[in-house]
Amino acid sequence: MSELSELTIAAARDALRKGEVTSVDLTEACLAAAEGAGALNAFVRHTPEMAVEQARAADARIQAGEAPAMCGIPLGIKDLFCTKGVASQAASRILDGFAPEYESTVTQKLFDAGAVMLGKLNMDEFAMGSSNEHSVYGEAVNPWKVDDRRLTPGGSSGGSAAAVAADLCLGATGTDTGGSIRQPAAFTGITGVKPTYGRCSRWGIVAFASSLDQAGPMTKSVRDAAIMLGAMCGHDPKDSTSADLPVPDFEAMLTGDIAGKVIGIPSEYRVAGMPAEIETLWADGIEMLKAAGAEVRDISLPHTKYALPAYYVIAPAEASSNLARYDGVRYGHRAQLEQGDGIVEMYEKTRAEGFGAEVKRRVMVGTYVLSAGFYDAYYNHARKVRTLIKRDFEAVFEAGVDAILTPATPSSAFGLGEVSDEDPVQMYLNDVFTVPVNLAGLPGVSVPAGLDKQGLPLGLQLIGRPWEEGDLLNTAYALESAAGFVEKPGKWW
Fold first, then answer.
1. In this predicted model, what pLDDT tens digit does every residue of 436-480 receive, in sequence order?
2. Nearest-5° angle of CA 213, CA 218, CA 224?
3. Contact status, residue 194 vs residue 472, Cβ threshold 8 Å
4. What is the pLDDT of residues 187-229, one digit of tens each?
5. Is 60 exceeded by the pLDDT of residue 2?
6. All structural domains of the chain with their residue ranges
7. pLDDT, position 189
8. Contact yes or no for 439/209 (Cβ under 8 A)
9. In the annotation, is 135 catalytic?
10. Cβ distance 31 to 118 under 8 Å?
11. Is the pLDDT of residue 1 over 80?
12. Exactly one of 88, 180, 320, 446 is catalytic; which is it?
């Protein structure tokens, strides 16, 4: 039954409705595939009993003629989403044993639509990372391989990307604070969508940087992303930043017709040292969109060069505030205390033991930039730069541009351990093409478009107008169709 796990969401949905397969069949095939892929370390917790129970309920709904698009579809859930009764640790020791008594809004919406949860997926601790090397569960591994090198699946949604690319599930949830859906999607040859900020509820998602975090789908195709996003998003009164807007039928908008659409090409995304094959892929993408009838226009986003430093002030500042709640008092890990230790010692020891090195680094940076004497010099300046970046995009869209095409990443997947922790800035540069989208609150999508000379996938990014995910996905669908990317990793795990 393993080939059933290779189906797309759209193909599985159609087969379920025709009675050619059952959700239990799909679920058992995915569970078997996941069990046999321990070397990837994508799943950190399997929930087979829950999955089969949900699959049986989905089959009953389908037989009764009540079949939403996601009904019966087996998914993996990133460990950042709170799932009722199932441990949700954000890949951190400090949340050891935390099993929420509530469900995140996004996962609840998926379950209400009949989706099946196979288990929880690996990630960088508290979503802080670009390689999935910062996890209490150990590193996730990219199913794509070059010789004997073990490659990163990207981060922070590395487990989600690896699981989808390796056909361990039909789709997965991810979150994107600075590129954590789009970068791993590009590294693993799948599609990843970061919606407009506020399109998906943040309620029940463990917070990293509250003004930047956004949930989104990670799937095998643009059509699958459209189907899954439609089930994930919608207004939530429990989240004050959730937009009270109708949810379009994103799949119905996938016509592939982009004739007359204006695609902007920002000069500032041609960064020094970018590999020639990334430049070539970008040029190929431009030609594909032209051939599909789009008009291509050179544009300028002049404050792009300040996006990365602004992001790495704002995101750690918000993380410092959000992670202050983890102190060992009410839940999660608590350090062993010695006689005479007081509450301050408990806080210090618990946080020292519970947080990993990258989380500590960002909390310390964030605390520093928020401290007296530095708040105006760093944090307020970064907020002003963020406003300028947002205005750059607004000016381009007001001038008639419908979407912006850029590379998704400055390279293909790199080897695990090859980007040293001794130079975190080198790792942060992986986000150079993705963080402006989060700072501006815009939707973005990464589409696989080719292979590099090593045979590893490369992605192109499309950035859209706020709240125009349907239009953006249609442009991505045209790009996907033109690129014709069908390559899959050879099974080695």
1. 999 999 999 999 999 999 999 999 999 999 999 999 999 999 999
2. 130
3. no
4. 999 999 999 999 999 999 999 999 999 999 999 999 999 999 9
5. no
6. 2-257+468-483
7. 98
8. no
9. no
10. yes
11. no
12. 180
Q: Does residue 414 have a pLDDT over 80? A: yes
Given pLDDT bands bounded at 50, 70 and 90, which one contains residue 421? Answer: low
Question: In what order do the strands lie in the sheet containing 295-299?
Answer: 43-46, 116-121, 74-78, 171-175, 215-219, 191-194, 444-451, 457-464, 403-407, 262-266, 295-299
pLDDT at residue 236 in the model: 98
Percent of the chain having pLDDT more than 90?
93
375 burial level (CB within 10 Å; 0-12, 13-18, 19+): middle
Beta pairing class for 295-299 and 262-266: parallel
pLDDT, mean over the chain = 96
Q: What is the 3-state secondary structure (H, E, C) of the chain?
A: CHHHHHCCHHHHHHHHHHCCCCHHHHHHHHHHHHHCCHHHCCEEEECHHHHHHHHHHHHHHHHCCCCCCCCCCEEEEECCECECCECCCCCCHHHCCCCCCCCCHHHHHHHHCCCEEEEEECCCHHHCCCCCCCCCCCCCCCCCCECCECECCCCCCHHHHHHHHCCCCCEEEEECCCCCCHHHHHHHCCEEEECCCCCCCCCCECCCCCCCCCEEEEECCHHHHHHHHHHHCCCCCCCCCCCCCCCCCCHHHCCCCCCCCEEEEEHHHCCCCCCHHHHHHHHHHHHHHHHCCCEEEEECCCCHHHHHHHHHHHHHHHHHHHHHHCCCCCCCCCCCCCCCCCHHHHHHHHHHHHCCHHHHHHHHHHHHHHCCCCHHHHHHHHHHHHHHHHHHHHHHHHCCCCEEEEECCCCCCCECCCCCCCCHHHHHHHHCCCHHHHHHCCCEEEEEEEECCCCCEEEEEEEECCCCHHHHHHHHHHHHHHHCCCCCCCCCC
Which pLDDT value is given to residue 161? 98
CATH entry, 2-257+468-483, from 3.40.50.1820, 2.60.120.260, 3.90.1300.10, 1.10.10.10: 3.90.1300.10
Could you tell me which residues are beta bridge partners of residue 205? 81
Which one from 5, 130, 135, 156 is the annotated catalytic residue?
Answer: 156
Q: Locate tokens 């730069």: which residue?
A: 385
Q: Please, which residues have CB within 8 angstroms of residue 116's CB and are 6 or more apart in sequence?
A: 23, 26, 27, 51, 54, 55, 58, 72, 73, 74, 75
Please tell me the predicted confidence (pLDDT) of residue 425: 73
Cα atoms in the 13 Å half-sphere on the side-chain side of 283: 7
Is 78 marked active-site? Answer: yes
How confident is residue 16, by pLDDT bands cut at 50, 70 and 90? very high
Residues 408-432, mean pLDDT to the nearest whole number? 85
* Digit-coded pLDDT (tens) for 331-340: 899 999 998 8
